[in-house]
Write a structure and sequence with these properties.
Elements lengths: L5 H23 L1 H33 L1 H5 L3 H49 L8 H13 L3 H29 L3 H45 L1 H9 L3 H53 L5 H30 L1 H12 L18 E9 L9 E9 L3 E6 L5 H8 L7 E6 L2 E2 L5 H6 L1 E4 L10 H6 L9 H10 L3 H5 L21 H14 L4 E5 L7 H15 L3 E6 L10 E6 L2 E6 L1 H7 L2 H15 L1
Parallel strand pairs: 3-8, 3-9, 6-7, 7-8
Antiparallel strand pairs: 1-2, 1-4, 4-5, 9-10
This protein binds adenosine-5'-diphosphate.
């Protein structure tokens, strides 16, 4: 469907896409890019020179007097033609090599931008499907698109330069030929624009499906998932689903490719028709004596050259159009708000004294009910505070908000009485060590797994060992084949697997190593047995050495010695106090505590 405004709109779009693409290539590889443009100008001049050399050769052939002098008069035009042809070839091959280098530079710069953006935005953006789709599109395109964009840009520059060069020689031969040639490019330009639009739409439509398909492939091939997939016998189900999705994609692709090919054939037929008309016009010019035979011969060569240059120009434009969606995504990220990073002056973070949540509400995007619904929490330096509640009550969400990973929808989070949004967010996070239940098991060495707690600082093996000792990880890490230098994954040579409970201790050691005044442990002990969990909690106070901890657990018995216990239920704090106070209240805590104690005694 083409609206009357569409051609202008798409021209404007082409203009902005070209401008942005040039900008990308320019900023990623200035010097080689200048070299490339210089080479393209050389090629263009050589190409135009070739046309003149052909005319020169033909005039010598047609000149009876020159023929009487034997081969001599042919030497200059033939050598000129040979030299210019060689120059065009050499320039072409140099361009290909340099183009490859420029393409890689653009790819590197683009990866840099994508990674910076992905790590720069707040965690909340990852909850939005729209954002995630866009990020995924960029990630999956980041390998191929930069090369295409670079090639498109180069094709546009090269073909423009060559067309101008050849165009000038054609005008020199006979100005009447030029308009005819320019019209020759119109059919291809029209159809290629439509083709690009089809390509856009196809890409957008398929993004979600390709993502789901990639995810299923990951489930079927990833190590961590392998055991559950086998235990539940999911192979057939997942493989079938994968094939079905691929089948749908293929049939969509077939329809899409058919449409594109039809357009392409129409464009080429149109171009051929215009070419035939041009040649007829040339014959007419010869017939009426407007142009000589040598001029006509050179014009035929020029017409062929120009037609292929126009084709290469439309090809370049089409490539850029097709990468348009990708470029839009890049553009949006580069110029878009960088969440917390681009704010004005921010305050330094004072030494931790207290953290207060007041009437905090938070709803995940796309969820009808709030995950947190008016939560008040108070944490004071040196305290060990526990947060308990059943699954889904909002504990992890609360931990994320306290760690500054999500801003609340409403309500306030105050650090020493000042709203946390006033602080530099990365400095604030450096004051907090948080380990989530689904912490990351880095396929790096044991030393690095703990050292990542303070990745900005040089590794201090003594402190790493001290943190490991406090988390109860030192014994088994020291006993690994290569001690702390052992990679904790068999993905790498000499790697060694450790158990779930051992991983948990390594993650806790990472949090301790961070030496942050506030430690948040979100169900840090779910893979530990109750006795180990109890030991971990009771040793926490000594380990923390005056630091503050929020300990999240669904095992009520573990946290009974906490300074204060908050009981979360359906996103609300329903009770808080010490264990004894809560037991005396005979409320939810007392009920769940007794329930768990009974189950524990009976087991
Ligand atoms: P808990 O840690 O107590 O098990 P959570 O904080 O993980 O509870 O979850 C609280 C509520 O928020 C649950 O209803 C859960 O389904 C929902 N929830 C958690 N994470 C997300 C998410 N990323 N997107 C949407 N809903 C979520």
């Amino acid at each position: 469907m083409t609206t009357p405004a569409a051609p202008r709109k798409s021209l404007r779009r082409l203009g902005s896409l070209l401008q942005f693409s040039f900008g990308l290539v320019w900023s990623a590889a200035r010097a080689p890019f200048v070299g490339l443009v210089a080479l393209q100008i050389v090629s263009a001049v050589a190409l135009a020179g070739q046309v003149l050399a052909v005319q020169l050769t033909l005039s010598v052939i047609l000149d009876a007097k020159a023929r009487e002098q034997g081969l001599l008069p042919f030497v200059f035009p033939v050598v000129l033609l040979a030299l210019l042809t060689a120059l065009t070839a050499v320039a072409g091959s140099l361009q290909a090599s340099l183009g490859r280098y420029v393409g890689e530079s653009v790819a590197q710069s683009m990866w840099g931008q994508i990674l910076e953006m992905a790590t720069g935005v707040g965690l909340r953006r990852f909850e939005s499907t729209d954002f995630y789709d866009r990020l995924e599109r960029m990630r999956s395109n980041a390998l191929s698109r930069p090369f295409q964009v670079t090639n498109g840009v180069l094709a546009v520059i090269g073909a423009t330069a060559a067309s101008i060069g050849v165009g000038i020689t054609i005008v020199a031969l006979n100005p009447l030929l030029l308009p005819l040639l320019l019209i020759g490019g119109v059919p291809m330009l029209l159809t290629s624009r439509r083709e690009s639009r089809l390509e856009f739409r196809f890409n957008v439509e398929q993004t979600q499906r390709i993502r789901l398909r990639t995810y299923i492939a990951l489930l079927l091939t990833a190590r961590d998932e392998a055991k559950e997939v086998r235990a539940f016998g999911l192979q057939r189900f997942l493989t079938h689903r994968f094939s079905r999705m691929y089948d749908t994609y293929r049939s969509d692709l077939a329809r899409h490719v058919r449409r594109r090919s039809t357009l392409n054939v129409l464009g080429n037929l149109g171009a051929a028709l215009v070419l035939a008309l041009t040649l007829l016009a040339l014959m007419w010019l010869i017939a009426v004596g407007q142009i000589g035979i040598a001029g006509a011969g050179a014009a035929i060569v020029a017409i062929r050259l120009l037609a292929s240059q126009i084709q290469s120009l439309t090809g370049g434009v089409q490539t850029i159009f097709e990468s348009g969606l990708f470029l839009d995504d890049v553009h949006e990220f580069v110029t878009g708000e960088q969440d917390e990073q681009s704010r004005g002056p921010v305050r330094d973070v004072p030494e931790f004294a207290s953290l207060d949540l007041d009437d905090v509400r938070f709803t995940y995007p796309g969820r009808p009910e709030p995950a947190l619904d008016g939560v008040d929490i108070h944490l004071e330096a040196g305290e060990v505070v526990a947060l308990v509640g059943e699954n889904g009550s909002g504990k992890t969400t609360l931990a994320k908000i306290m760690a500054g990973l999500y801003p609340p929808d409403s309500g306030t989070v105050e650090w020493n009485g000042t709203d946390v949004s006033a602080f530099d967010q990365s400095r604030l996070r450096s004051q907090i060590a948080v380990i989530f239940q689904d912490f990351v098991r880095y396929a790096f060495t044991a030393e690095e797994n703990i050292g990542l707690g303070r990745a900005d600082e040089p590794v201090d093996i003594e402190k790493i060992r001290a943190a490991a000792r406090e988390a109860g990880a030192d014994d088994f890490l020291a006993a690994l084949p290569d001690g702390y230098r052992t990679p904790l994954s068999r993905l790498f040579d000499g790697g060694h697997e450790i158990s779930g409970g051992q991983w948990q201790r390594v993650a806790i050691a990472r949090a301790y190593y961070r030496q942050a005044p506030l430690v948040i442990l979100d169900e840090p002990s779910s893979a530990l047995d109750p006795r180990s969990e109890h030991d971990l909690f009771t040793s926490l106070r000594a380990t923390l050495q005056g630091r503050t901890a929020l300990f999240v657990s669904h095992r009520f018995s573990t946290v009974r010695s906490a300074d204060r216990i908050y009981v979360l239920d359906a996103g609300k704090v329903v009770e808080h106090g010490t264990h004894d106070e809560l037991m005396a209240r005979q409320g939810l805590y007392a009920e769940l505590f007794s329930l768990q104690a009974d189950a524990y005694l009976r087991s």
